[in-house]
Design a protein that fits this description.
Blueprint (H helix, E strand, L loop, with lengths): L1 E7 L12 H11 L3 E7 L8 E5 L2 E11 L11 E4 L12 H10 L3 E4 L27 E6 H6 L5 H9 L10 H12 L5 E5 L5 E5 L2 E5 L2 H5 L2 E7 L7 H13 L3 E5 L9 E5 L4 E3 L3 E2 L5 E17 L2 E16 L3 E11 L2 E8 L2 E3 L1
Parallel strand pairs: 1-2, 2-4, 6-7, 7-8, 15-20
Antiparallel strand pairs: 1-11, 3-4, 4-5, 5-6, 9-10, 11-12, 12-19, 13-14, 13-16, 16-17, 16-18, 18-19, 18-20
């Protein structure tokens, strides 16, 4: 298995971001990540996919789209479409039809920022996902870094503070989103969790203060989706595009907050009577399943089954549990950073059936 670091959900000048695709590629190379997925609003930008190189470093840029009904007020039900290969914004007024169209093209459909509250002081409205009757989507954006910012800025003074000290923002996914994910999993659905930056590199002006809010490179060092590939990246963009999307679509991934410490190297496995599985895969409960989580650094590690904390391993680098009951098992890990306990790792589940 081969792990790569992917930052996804970001915007350029083609929608409401401030940078170009080359700016994003340069920032990604500087941050040392392997791939980015750019998702401008309601426009599938053509001709930008491929490898971008700088000296002896490279990054794979993939192009998706964030689609929503622009005639709707407020503009809820944003969908991230990856790998669809064609423009689908014309289906935005019907979320289920849009999801169906994404899947019919062989693409992946993720519900963007399921909980995205209003920030009245900055005239930002609530743009959460509302239509929970939809089916057959790939997953949800469990942790959206920009949505979380909206939860900690009750005043312009707070906004100015976080503009200059963005590392203080992130704590964990919005709790309601975590609860909704567990609820969906408990219904027997396979719902893949991803983490998105929602990077815009927005410019803030407050009197004499001028600041870029969360530059691309900062985002690329923070909330990422770590993807476990069946084979290493080849350097051929079309081959590697398929490798990345196959792994993401099957849930072979985890959300890592890489700013406190790199989450690269985390693994969550299940060893049964006849086979070993990783995140996103199923295994029979018969005979018991040895679940093991391994961390790259010491942290507080929780094993969760069907939304309930089953076991806590505090200040450890590994945790083992023998599962004899069917359920949806996943892992959370926490680290202290800048004086607060913060979410560090959120794994996709192992499904014990």
């Amino acid at each position: 298995m081969h792990e790569i670091v992917v930052n996804l959900h970001m915007h350029t000048r083609y929608s409401d971001g401030t940078g170009t695709h080359k700016d994003i590629a340069r920032a990604a190379i500087q941050a040392g990540i392997d791939a980015v997925i750019v998702t401008d609003h309601n426009v599938l930008v053509q001709g930008m996919e491929g490898y971008y190189k700088e000296k002896n470093k490279r990054v794979l840029m993939l192009i998706g789209e964030e689609i929503h009904d622009q005639d709707r007020d407020p503009q809820k039900n944003h969908l991230l479409a990856f790998g669809a290969g064609r423009e689908l914004a014309t289906f935005a007024d019907d979320p289920q039809l849009l999801i169906n169209q994404v899947r019919e093209t062989g693409g992946l459909a993720f519900l963007a920022h399921p909980d995205d509250p209003a920030a009245p002081v900055f005239k930002e409205t609530d743009i959460s996902w509302e239509d929970w009757s939809v089916q057959n989507y790939t997953g949800i954006e469990l942790w959206n870094a920009l949505s979380e910012l909206k939860t900690v800025v009750p005043s312009k003074l707070h906004g100015a503070f976080y503009a200059y000290f963005p590392a203080f923002v992130a704590h964990q996914p919005i709790p309601a989103t975590l609860d909704k994910w567990d609820e969906l999993l408990a219904e027997g659905r396979r719902v893949v969790a991803i983490g998105g930056s929602d990077a815009h590199a927005l410019h803030m002006n407050m009197g004499s203060l001028h600041r870029t809010i969360f530059p691309y490179e900062f985002h690329f060092r923070a909330v990422n989706t770590h993807v476990i590939l069946t084979e290493p990246l080849t350097g051929d963009s079309s081959t590697d595009r398929k490798l990345v999307y196959d792994a993401m679509g099957n849930g072979r991934a985890f959300v890592g907050y890489d700013l406190p410490a790199s989450t690269k190297g985390f693994r969550f496995t299940g060893q049964g009577r006849d086979k070993t599985v990783i995140m996103g895969e199923e295994i029979p409960a018969k005979g018991g399943v040895t679940l093991q989580a391994r961390l790259p650094f010491t942290a507080d590690l929780w094993l969760i089954r069907d939304g309930q904390v089953l076991q806590k391993c505090d200040r450890q680098t590994a945790c083992t549990y023998i599962a004899t009951e069917p359920g949806v098992y996943r892992v959370e890990a926490y680290k202290n950073y800048l004086g607060k306990r913060r979410g560090w790792i959120y794994s996709n589940p192992i499904y014990v059936r």
